[in-house]
Amino acid sequence: MKIYSDIYDIERPFNRPALTIGNFDGVHLGHQALFKKVVELADERNGDKVALTFHPHPMKVLRPDNPPKLICTLEQKIELIMAAGIEHLICLPFTKEFARTPASFFVEEILYRIIGVEDLVIGYDYKCGRGREGDIDFLKRMGDKLGFRVHVIPPVKVDGMIVSSTAIRELVKKGDMRMVRKMLGRFYQIRGVVRKGKRRGGPIVGFPTANLALNPEDLCPKPGVYAVQVIHGERLYDGVVNIGFNPTFGDGRLGAEVHIFDFNKEIYGHEIKVNLVERIRDEKKFSGPEELAAQIKKDIQKAKEILKEIRS
User: What is the pLDDT of residue 201?
Assistant: First the structure.
């Protein structure tokens, strides 16, 4: 997949492109429906498959005091869009100046003249341009005028709920990883570089852990213990993670402590990816290492049962 970090990096219009536009935070099932339609339309005429997104998230610019917590990093979003079959990703810098762009200019100059759109695929609630003035009726009128088709994808529902980034954020904050998985079409994932911790996991408690720092500004799942899958390099391992503030030892700093089953490698400084499969229990304070170790044994057993179930 080729990535364009500015609209003017596009030297000429694409080859008969099908295009979709959005923030695509999480690349959930609703977004995947857009990409699927783009691929279908482009394949009919051997055209280019194009997506246009923005960075940072527009609300981080427009509402800097209360921006949404993102479901996935830009790196992960790019990986997922590529996996959906998109060949060209335009990742436009979102600024206050860009937010003032009239919808007519955005469509006529950027989508039509620069990108060369032939099919525009949008969600049922999509709007573009200054003050979100460019609604679906406007886009259809522009399509009739300029000669491109507009395809509106209806909402995707799971268990009666409309799949949306807002709904997924609320589910993540509640720790409902089963429903999150249904809406994403995959496990919710946190990533990070393993840092050196207090070295209590192995020597004191008896269960070595890989420690990840978590940014409170990112979308953090509800504190507690989760059954997880851990990706290190090309291998997948089972494990259990405690997300929270480690009240037993009074650390007071948000983090994730991952115990990886059947694993004895030195991975300080390595990136790992942690798929959150299911929440097991709340984080709690124990009287000391012995009581904590006894509970971890129970958590590991429960995690193994959960992880075995998802493979069956």
Answer: 47
Euclidean distance between CA atoms 47 and 119, whole angstroms: 10
pLDDT along the chain (312 residues), means of 10: 95 97 97 98 98 94 91 94 98 96 98 98 96 96 98 98 97 97 97 76 69 82 96 96 75 84 93 97 86 92 96 82
**pTM listed for this prediction:** 0.92
What domains does the chain contain, in order, with CATH numbers? 2-158 (3.40.50.620), 187-311 (2.40.30.30)
- Taking CA atoms, 81 is separated from 213, 219, 302, in Å, by 26, 20, 34
Q: What's the rounded Cα separation, in Å, for the pair 293 and 233?
A: 29
